[in-house]
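For the sake of clarity, the format in which proteins appear in this thesis is described at this point. The record quoted next illustrates the convention:

___
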Amino acid sequence: MTQPKDSDHDDEPPFEPSDELNYEAYVWLVRMTSGEVSEEDMVKFLRWRDASDENLIAISKATILWNALGDLKPRESTSDDLDDSDQTPVSPGPNLTLQ
């Protein structure tokens, strides 16, 4: 069985955005948590997950991140957020046209 490297448990993100396998795991995770999973989807997912240790590790990492993000709560806005009197106005810059 392939073991994740030690850095997987440290400060490094659980995946590289360009990693195709991890992307595939996130696609499966989104599909499986959509609330519209068919029996065929479940069979295909389980077959994919069980096809290799790498797939199992990728879906495990995706699930950990998904659950961690689910625990985040949006910050409540305050009146300070609306007070922009101390903000320096920004020039819109030159007009750009597409030719």
